[in-house]
Amino acid sequence: MQQALNVKHLPYEIDARNRFHFYENYWKRVALELLIKHFPPSSDKTVLDYGSGRGETLQIFGNAGFQTFGADVDPECVRLSAQFGKSVILNTADPVAQFGKKSFDVVTCFHVLEHVDFPKKTLGELGRIARSYVVLAVPNLRNLNGVFRRTITLNETNEGHLQSWDHGHFLSLAERHCGLKLVEWGHDATILSGLSNFSQRLFGTQTTIFLETGIFKRMFPWHGISVLGLFRPV
Fold first, then answer.
1. Where do the domains of the chain lie?
2. Can you tell me the distance from the alpha carbon of 60 to that of 67, in angstroms, rounded to the nearest whole number?
């Protein structure tokens, strides 16, 4: 049975003035830096972005020197991704058959697993497609955004999110159940609800980004936007 990516669809264009849109690319750049520490880029090293969206991962990793490929269930995303590398419609029912075992040096998957019906199945498949590394990011259940809110409503959660993890539970999923071994965690940005909102109102987006990717992240690295890690297939 085919897995649907049930997404409250990502925008086809992002607003550079919106810091949350900025972070959609920032965690990809953090992931690239993490990968390069262990796997220096070259034109013969291949990267498959599973759920390539608008194609920013292909652009960012391609500019760094990797040979990039994209796959997505949305034809418009495939078209957008194709500006930066070869892109195809994703066969979510059997991506291992579509691409082949050990067919790419690296597989990236950023903020996709929370949308799939069977994340254990998908994550295991990513590990079988990758020869060397799998780079992953999912929303962090342990983030501090809205920590002082008094009520919880559906308006605060993406309607396509079917599950979420903190670092410990994601590590358990990856290592105990999906044939992956953690190499290193990465950290993107930590939003401190009231302080971040105060900074945004008084000082604007750039100052707030500086704080959230700097001192706030250093103070609370495990409370970032993403659970982000570099893994090896085993």
1. 19-233
2. 11
Contacts (Cβ under 8 Å, ≥6 apart) of 226 = 27, 111, 137, 138, 139, 140, 188
d(CA 208, CA 203): 7
pLDDT score for 7:
45
Task: For domain 19-233, give the CATH number.
Answer: 3.40.50.150
Q: Which residues contact 72 (CB under 8 A, 6 or more apart)?
A: 51, 52, 53, 78, 81, 87, 89, 90
- Walk along the chain (234 residues) in steps of 10 and give the mean pLDDT of each run: 48 81 94 98 97 96 98 96 96 97 98 95 98 97 73 72 94 98 98 92 96 97 97 97
Tokens of 126: 């990513």
* Closest to 19 (Cα-Cα) out of 201, 206, 219, 187: 206
Please, what is the Cα angle at 178 between 177 and 181, to 5 degrees?
105
Q: Three-state SS string across 7-45, please?
A: CCCCCCCCCCCCHHHHHHHHHHHHHHHHHHHHCCCCCCC
Q: Which residues contact 94 (CB under 8 A, 6 or more apart)?
A: none
Number of H helices, E strands in the chain: 9, 7
- What letter does residue 124 receive in the DSSP assignment? H
- Residue closest to 185 by CA, chosen among 172, 167, 210: 167
